[in-house]
Amino acid sequence: PLINHEWKAQEGIDTLEVSVLSSYPISSRLAILREGLEYFTEEKQRQYGRTMHLILSEIKTGDDIDTALEHAVSEGNILPEEVAELSKILQEIISTPECKHWFDGTGQVRNETPILGGGLKGSKRPDRIVFYDDDHVEIIDYKFGHYDKHYSSQVQEYIQLVQRMGYNDVRGFLCYIDQKKVKVVPVSLPNSSAKS
Q1: Which long-range contacts (CB under 8 A, 24 or more apart) does 95-103 make?
Q2: Which H or E element spans position 174?
Q3: How far is the C-alpha of 192 from the C-alpha of 56, rounded, in Å?
Q4: What value, to the nearest 5°, has the Cα angle with vertex 105 and ends 101 and 110?
Q5: Which of 36, 104, 105, 177 is least enclosed, having the fewest CB within 10 Å?
């Protein structure tokens, strides 16, 4: 038994005396996925994208990968046996030439930070915004499916919002990630000479 116990009655109060308390190693326990039943019914690609968004939201530099993965395991978002494969994918992202400066610590990173005000109804939440010392800003939106031209409009909206905050040199990117490759697509405003 996990607990050896003995009930004792003392002056009308029942007490439980525990003499031995055993525990199983955490790796042998059942994992509780905190996503609810929809976790099991969503299509696999969508589930993968949600999980990767969660993990990437905790990564500012490449040094944060292990901690983010450990946290994802402890929260029940991934299984321990998935860590090695996801680490490989994350390492691929941060070493891709078009992406690596987003994770090298040269800019101030804001992951999943809401943009409020300015006449917005509600808020907008870009996946990653990096503010650089030369006053340029890069906005990154991660995608885990196939290319869709409609995704560009979302990044364009983020660019306009950050420009309204007083930043003139704002560059937007869609970062498509699958288990085999990373592709970065620059996004600029229509009829814009802004760098991207």
Answers
A1: 96/182, 96/184, 98/173, 98/182, 98/184, 99/175, 99/182, 99/184, 102/128, 102/130, 102/138, 102/140, 103/59, 103/60, 103/61, 103/62
A2: strand 169-177
A3: 30
A4: 90
A5: 36
Structure tokens given for 173? 């990117």
Residue 96 has pLDDT above 60, yes or no: yes
More confident residue, 66 or 4: 66
Residue 105 CA to residue 80 CA, distance in Å, equals 28
Contact between residue 60 and residue 109 where contact means Cβ atoms under 8 Å apart: yes
Digit-coded pLDDT (tens) for 24-79: 565 665 555 555 555 454 567 788 889 999 999 999 999 999 999 999 999 999 99
Name the β-bridge partners of 174: 141, 185
Rounded to two decimals, what is the model's pTM? Answer: 0.74
φ/ψ (deg, to 5) at 32? -105, 120
Residues 6+ apart with CB under 8 A from 98: 173, 182, 184
